[in-house]
Amino acid sequence: MMANSLVYGLVLVCMITGTTGSFMVTDNPYEQYTTHRWPDWTTPRGGYWTSSPSPGQDLTGRMFSVMSGSVVTFRGPLRYGNINAFTVCLRIIAEATPGAAIFTLTTSNSATLTLRSMPSGYELTVGQASKNLQPVSAIPSFGKLWPWTSLCVTWDSNTGMTQMWKDGKMSVRKGMWRGQNFYGPATMTLSGFEGQVTDIHMWDKVLPLSGLRSYNQGWGYPFGNMLSWRDMGYTSQGYAILENAFESQGGPAEKDSTGKQQRRHWRRHGELGNVVQGGADSVGGCFGLRKRCGKSQVLLE
C-alpha cells in the first residue's frame, strides 16, 4: 500500500511539473514529433491547438492556409549531429508584406535561420549574420509551377556561400556565417505571413542544380531528409487550415526542336501528367504509366 502511494505521488509530481512547461515529458520518442502544450489542451486560452498523428503524416496534395496571427510549426525526424550545409525549399502563395518572416528554422543548439520578404528581394539571416538576396538571373529550363511561388535557399558552412532560388531565377552567391554549424533536428515555424504553403522540404546538403530544377518543376526530386512533406509532424495554433492543394500548371511553355510551343502539363506535387478528370485530391499517390485513382485518370509521360 505504501509503495503504491509512493508511486502515485511521484506520478502526480511529474504531472504537475509537466503542466508548467511547454512539452510533455515522455519515454516514447515518437511523442517528440508533435507538441503537447498541456495548459492549452486542458484550459484553452484564446485559440485551439491541433497536431498531426505521431510520428508524421503524408501531406502530399495538401496545403496549409495560414491566417494572420496564426502559427504553424513543422517538425522532422529525430536526428542528432552537426549540420554543415542545408537546402530549404517550399511553395507559397502570399501577399507581399515587406519585413514579414516567411519562415524561421531552429535547431537544438538554438541556431536560427529566418527568411524575410523585403521591398527589394529577400533577407536571409543565418545565426547572427544577414544578407539581402534578390533572385534576378533567369534559368529558362526552370519555368514556374503556377500558381505557386517556389522558393529554395542553400547554405554551406565550409565556404559560407548562400544562394536563393525563386521559380526560374537565382540570386548571386554571398558569404555569411562561415565555419558555423547547426545541430540536431530541425523545427520550422510559419507565423509572419498570410497565405498558402505546401511542399516543405529540407536537406542536410546543398542540392545540385538538377535537384533544384526538379523541385521547381514539381516532380522527380528527392524528398527532404530533415523535413519532408511526405512525413511531417506539425502543430497549429489559431486560424490555420489544412486543405486540398491547388492543382499546379507547369509554365511557361517551352519551344521544341521544331520551334513550336509545347503544350503545358498539369503537375501534381511529385508527379507529371495530364489530369483528365477529378478534383484537387484525386491524383495523390497515383504512379505508373496509366492508373485510375478515385474518379480521376492520370496519364504519365
From TrEMBL:
<dbReference type="Pfam" id="PF00354">
    <property type="entry name" value="Pentaxin"/>
</dbReference>
<protein>
    <submittedName>
        <fullName>Serum amyloid P-component-like isoform X2</fullName>
    </submittedName>
</protein>
<dbReference type="GO" id="GO:0005576">
    <property type="term" value="C:extracellular region"/>
</dbReference>
<keyword id="KW-0732">Signal</keyword>
<feature type="domain" description="Pentraxin (PTX)">
    <location>
        <begin position="58"/>
        <end position="248"/>
    </location>
</feature>
<keyword id="KW-1015">Disulfide bond</keyword>
<feature type="signal peptide">
    <location>
        <begin position="1"/>
        <end position="21"/>
    </location>
</feature>
<keyword id="KW-0964">Secreted</keyword>
<dbReference type="InterPro" id="IPR051005">
    <property type="entry name" value="Pentraxin_domain"/>
</dbReference>
<dbReference type="InterPro" id="IPR001759">
    <property type="entry name" value="PTX_dom"/>
</dbReference>
